[in-house]
From TrEMBL:
<dbReference type="InterPro" id="IPR012341">
    <property type="entry name" value="6hp_glycosidase-like_sf"/>
</dbReference>
<keyword id="KW-0808">Transferase</keyword>
<dbReference type="Pfam" id="PF12439">
    <property type="entry name" value="GDE_N"/>
</dbReference>
<feature type="domain" description="Glycogen debranching enzyme bacterial and archaeal type N-terminal">
    <location>
        <begin position="18"/>
        <end position="235"/>
    </location>
</feature>
<dbReference type="InterPro" id="IPR008928">
    <property type="entry name" value="6-hairpin_glycosidase_sf"/>
</dbReference>
<protein>
    <submittedName>
        <fullName>4-alpha-glucanotransferase</fullName>
        <ecNumber>2.4.1.25</ecNumber>
    </submittedName>
</protein>
<feature type="domain" description="Glycogen debranching enzyme C-terminal">
    <location>
        <begin position="288"/>
        <end position="652"/>
    </location>
</feature>
<dbReference type="InterPro" id="IPR024742">
    <property type="entry name" value="Glycogen_debranch_N"/>
</dbReference>
<dbReference type="InterPro" id="IPR032790">
    <property type="entry name" value="GDE_C"/>
</dbReference>
<dbReference type="GO" id="GO:0004134">
    <property type="term" value="F:4-alpha-glucanotransferase activity"/>
</dbReference>
<dbReference type="Pfam" id="PF06202">
    <property type="entry name" value="GDE_C"/>
</dbReference>
<dbReference type="InterPro" id="IPR006451">
    <property type="entry name" value="Glycogen_debranch_arc"/>
</dbReference>
<dbReference type="GO" id="GO:0004135">
    <property type="term" value="F:amylo-alpha-1,6-glucosidase activity"/>
</dbReference>
<dbReference type="InterPro" id="IPR010401">
    <property type="entry name" value="AGL/Gdb1"/>
</dbReference>
<keyword id="KW-0328">Glycosyltransferase</keyword>
<dbReference type="GO" id="GO:0005980">
    <property type="term" value="P:glycogen catabolic process"/>
</dbReference>
Length: 668
């Protein structure tokens, strides 16, 4: 599904806009451009997670390869320099690039010789493999690869791990830098290694220039590797963090391919009719889904757990993103077995009735500045139980859920509390961002949404209705939750803006009701328990369709609003100011498809709303879905190249449509 020839690969600007990603299931990853050049400080062949899934270090940055063939030298690598030079420029020799399942593969044409290169990571290990195959040649190819390394935090802070000590070890080299960083082991199986300690200054990073971030980087040439490839022969390069792995495992590539097959088999086994009829891009997203699911080294109880990385290359695991993403990444892919461990992991972090918002890379403790992550937790548990019938999980988590409700009644952090006057949930304070619209510039929150946000109260009502069902299932008292739900439902009437024909975004804020047309009201239609009459549901869907719907999701603000911004770029202040003021969010296509289906009962029309994602997987993060897009056409992809909830919600929506036997079957 993802493949391109010289028309893309041979144009440096275009080839640099297409990025590949490989992951290891513990937070580590490898990522770069199709061209082979670095454009971000986050790019590298081995970014290791030292405390899975966080504390990530850029270790092996890249390999600068060249081949000698029939007396001529052919560059495979490409570098941009701060001087403006591009040298070497091996992208001109790329004949084809494709994803083979989850494995990026380049084919280089060097006269009449063809050389293939593949990159993948070992699942569960901070280990990257790079394989070179002489696909076609009339005589041997001489491969040279200069290993460019570092050992810094994966955010580009302007530092470089220097000096580096490089020594011969186990047929390769061992690289040690100052501080407490793990050593890096490098080896070319069947090749020779020559240690080096040469500082390369001034790598240019154009993607960071566009984002107003530090756009220069320095790295260290730590060794040069050489090997001869006979026609049809393969040599494999190994990069491993730590002192454990020093030998190339010949089963590493077959094992990676077997994992891809198993993921697709689980998906097709769970949804046989849908998988059989699905376009190929959906199966590519099934493989992408696996990239976000990670092990979490420790929970407060000291046991290992599971989590979800919010996005690559720079996000950690976030509570909100995890709970929104879980149904699509786990249940829609036939991987229901990973849902319960994730839910149990987050239960261990609940504090004062709140789920963590995020687990910062360098911090010892999670942050709890979220009003909605906790409420999405109820929806994730409900979806998991509906899919698995796991009463044991429900029984174990019910006390946690009961405590969450109790905390929300009596009040928890940041003024989050049920209003005793109307039974709606309120929250917020100056300088703190609590909803998913969480952009902040310095101390200024762009969309503070203090008061009673519409989606928060749709989620609160659905959480209470879920508690009614959970209590009944477990033989627990359900009446208190029934009463609170009934009161919240009656009070939700206040959200209806009759003059505009859609819902207020926030009630009882510092300036009263917020009338801006935003997508948050779609959850009052899409969540399992709708709070609106059929007529109002349709009005909300139509309002969002007219002003917010694009090919890749919903805008975060209507273009008619004076605060609307249609372009995402510039320095961090400008980008954050636009983040929720018009940018298109891909994950919102999921709830919109669900709401559209509920209102119109037309699966074919709803399914067509997802089709543009089949084109998008060939741009930006290849085989995946971006975080956001510009609000103005042509809706250029922005933000993270691979976002968990973007992939998850498209998969969930596709699976939902597969389950619809008759129009109107999702009617409330």
């Amino acid at each position: 599904m993802v493949g391109m020839g010289r028309e893309i690969c041979g144009d440096l600007r275009i080839a640099e806009e297409r990025e590949w990603l490989v992951t290891n299931g513990i937070g580590g990853y490898g990522s770069g451009t199709v061209a082979g050049s670095l454009t971000r400080g986050y790019h590298g062949l081995l970014v290791a997670a030292l405390r899975p899934p966080v504390d990530r270090r850029l270790m092996l940055v890249k390999l600068d390869e060249a081949v000698m063939y029939r007396g001529a030298a052919w560059d495979l690598a490409t570098n941009r320099w701060a001087s403006g030079a591009v040298a070497p420029s091996g992208f001109v020799n790329i004949e084809h690039f494709a994803l083979e399942g989850s494995i990026p593969c380049w084919r280089y044409a060097c006269a009449d010789a063809l050389l293939e290169k593949r990159v993948w990571m070992e699942h569960g290990q901070n280990t990257t493999y790079v394989a070179y195959t002489a696909l076609q040649a009339r005589e041997p190819l001489r491969l040279t690869a200069r290993a460019i390394a570092n050992n810094r935090v994966f955010h580009n802070t302007g530092t470089v791990a220097w000096p580096a000590e490089v020594s011969a070890a186990s047929g390769g080299v061992r690289v040690v830098t100052a501080g407490d960083a793990l050593p890096l082991f490098l080896k070319l199986e069947g090749g020779a290694a020559t240690p080096a300690t040469e500082l390369y200054r001034g790598f240019a990073l154009p993607a960071e220039t566009a984002r107003g971030l530090l756009d220069r980087d320095d790295h260290v040439h730590v060794a040069t590797f050489e090997a001869t490839l006979l026609p049809g022969e393969t040599v494999v390069f190994l990069a491993a963090a730590g002192d454990g792995t020093t030998a190339v495992d010949p089963e590493a590539l077959p094992r990676r391919r077997a994992r891809d097959r198993a993921l697709l088999s689980a998906w097709s086994g769970a949804w046989p009719s849908g998988a059989a009829a699905a376009p190929g891009w959906v199966s590519q997203l099934v493989l992408a889904a696996d990239q976000f699911v990670v092990d979490r080294a420790q929970t407060p109880g000291g046991s290992p757990g599971k989590s979800i990385i919010a996005g690559y290359p720079w996000f950690e695991d976030w509570g909100r993103d995890t709970m929104i993403s879980l149904p699509g990444l786990a249940l829609s892919t036939g991987q229901a077995s990973i849902a319960a461990p994730i839910l149990r992991t987050f239960a261990a972090f609940v504090d004062q009735g709140m789920l963590p918002n995020r687990f910062p890379d360098g911090a010892a403790h999670p942050e709890y500045n979220t009003m909605d992550a906790t409420l999405w937790y109820f929806q994730a548990i409900r979806a998991c139980h509906e899919a698995t019938g796991d009463d044991g999980l429900l029984r174990d988590l019910f006390p946690v859920l009961r405590d969450i409700v109790d905390w929300h009644i009596r009040g928890t952090r940041y003024g989050i509390q049920v209003d005793p006057g109307d039974g709606l949930l309120r929250g917020g304070q100056d300088g703190v961002q609590l909803t998913w619209m969480d952009a902040k510039v310095g101390d200024r929150v762009i969309t503070p949404r203090i008061g009673k946000p519409v989606e928060i109260n749709a989620l609160w009502y659905n959480a209470l209705r879920a508690m009614v069902a959970f209590a009944a299932r477990l033989g627990e008292p359900a009446e208190p939750y029934q009463g609170m739900a009934a009161r919240a439902l009656a009070s939700f009437e206040r959200f209806w803006n009759a003059a505009a024909g859609y819902c207020y975004d926030v009630l009882d804020g510092p300036a009263g009701a917020e009338v801006a047309l935003r997508p948050n009201q779609i959850f009052a239609v899409s969540l399992p328990e709708s709070l609106l009459s059929p007529e109002r549901q349709r009005a909300v869907v139509d309002a969002c369709a007219r002003a917010l719907l694009t090919s890749y999701g919903l805008r975060s603000l209507a273009p008619s609003d004076p605060a609307y911004q249609g372009f995402y770029g510039g320095d961090q202040e400008r980008r954050d100011a636009a983040y929720h003021q018009g940018m298109v969010w891909a994950w919102l296509i999921g709830p919109f498809v669900e709401a559209h289906l509920r209102v119109y009962g037309d699966p074919d029309a709803a399914r067509r709303l997802l089709a543009p994602m089949g084109d998008h997987i060939n741009a930006a993060g290849l085989g995946s879905i971006s975080e956001i897009f510009d609000g103005d056409a042509p809706f250029a992809p922005r933000g993270c190249i691979a976002q968990a909830w973007s992939v998850a919600e498209v998969l969930r929506a596709f699976t939902l449509l597969d389950q619809v036997a008759l129009p109107g079957s999702l009617s409330p």
